[in-house]
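Narrative summary of target 7.
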Amino acid sequence: MRLSFPVFFTTFLVTANAVPDWSSLRASLSGTASLHGPVQSSDYDQCLKLGSNAYAIAGGANGICMQSYNCSHQFCFKERYGFNLPWYVVDVRTEEDVINAVNFASAHGLNVSIKTTGHSYQGSSTSAGSLLIWMHNYVNDGTITTAYTDSCGGVTDAVLGIGGGENWNDVLEHVKGKYHIVTGGGRTVSAAGGWLMGGGLSFSSREYGIGVDQVVDFRVVLANGTVVIADACANLDLFWALRGGGGGSFGVVTHVHYKLHPVSEIVQVNFGVYGETLAVLTDYWAYVRSIDQWMDFWIRKSPYIDSRWSGFFGLKAVHLVFAGSLADANSTFLDDFQTWYDVVLDKTRYNAMWGFYRPQSSVYTSWYEYKGGSKAAGDPTRTDAASNIGVNLAGRIMPRSVVIERPDEVKALLLHPDVGPNLLTTNYFLGGKINDVGINETAVHPALRNGIWNIFTYGDRGAQKVREFIPNSVTGVCYNHHYSLEPDWRNACWGSNYARLYQLKRVYDPKNMFNCWHCVGYQGSEVENPSSTTSTVPPSTTSTVPPSTTSPSPSVTNSTTSVRVSGTTTVGSEFLTSLAHVATIFALLIM
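Modeled conformation, tokenized:
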């Protein structure tokens, strides 16, 4: 574990001459807003009592809870570091509350953290000793406006007004089945906060774009307490930075106008294994062969699938959604999928007890119904659960060109014993219209506009193997889903965009009031993955040069499977052994 301590731990410190008068902040708040603190580490016991209920976690214990309990500690590393809790929490209800909180923090030299629901798996929405602006109870909007005109005079057919504290459950219940809207995966995820400003991947992004592509304008409280609108003509630099530069860095977003799309039928397709334990025990090599054939099909097919298809996949399953009719779903991909299953996939060993089932489709009238409709509203069993276990989750963008040009090497990577057993089933299917947006039009890592998958591994060894195969010189990470100890994280998260983001940070937050781990302009202690070979130390407060956005390319040689990224693929008995190892460990991971 690499730990370094730069000269400046933070740029905002409480001094002896500026002891906060908390009663004055409390008195400035609106009638339903409130101030809580000082926060004690024992207060987090309230969060632990809430279990895995993501709704309760989002709204509990006056805002100090995190959806991953490990992220209540510094660097999301509970085993090694102490609590990372704010000093005070201000539960804001109006924009005036936000302004007063920001001005109070500025007057007293306080660091400010911003949280809505606590879904940051890097711990960026909490900061030790900070004033936490808790947006969870901020006033909702929900207004649908047709023919909405922005400051440029441009007209958008339909937009939804989203308050700064709303989550996707709120938004889905506003829109219902009237329109299609690009949402996050879980209903408890914030709609105008970290998910959106981190990029906003969705299971319908290949047809409609990612979350930042839906934003028409932001309303933002800046570090100096002023309120501005940022869109394609007003405060254009800020508009660019907020679309991918990460939440909690440039100001407090209090409102967003967000695009709505015509409603469409949604075809859901599932494919996967049944009876996995029995398969491993009784037909080991047949099971391994099925995984190998499925990966062959998916690797060679996915780069060319119609953009109306989105979803996620893993080694032993895929969940896809199609925006359109069943007839169009059949003609664009499903017919080919079912033909592959019927003709190519070796099913001679399948029986009633185990096998890979034929692709199964269901049709929903709208995205709202696909997301569970009214029955899912507010139901903690119908959304992502909070977790009291560690989240050692690392994501990385797989370039489309790599999959097309080196398919055998990609398969060897996914089936490697360090990767395959730790590869999640929710690897995002990218490409399509995500890639139609120019790499410089938004602040997300440019690699996101050239990717085909966002793959997730659990555990350091698998993550490092993927980094070596597609290093930062080739790609990067999706900010929403990157590892809290990601090596060279500034480069990994933003690539060539970091330099511009850093300069804009100095413009909009010159005193670094909004200082958070893995956020643009962060200053503080640095911790990296143990396998890291590079470290980037933040600049001092007087520096005008951003941290390096380049890193040396590590050796990309995979000796275990005899795969060399720079040469041709060689697959032999060791490759089959890796497949077998994958199957064995999968059997142990079944829950």
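DSSP finds 19 helices and 23 strands in the chain.
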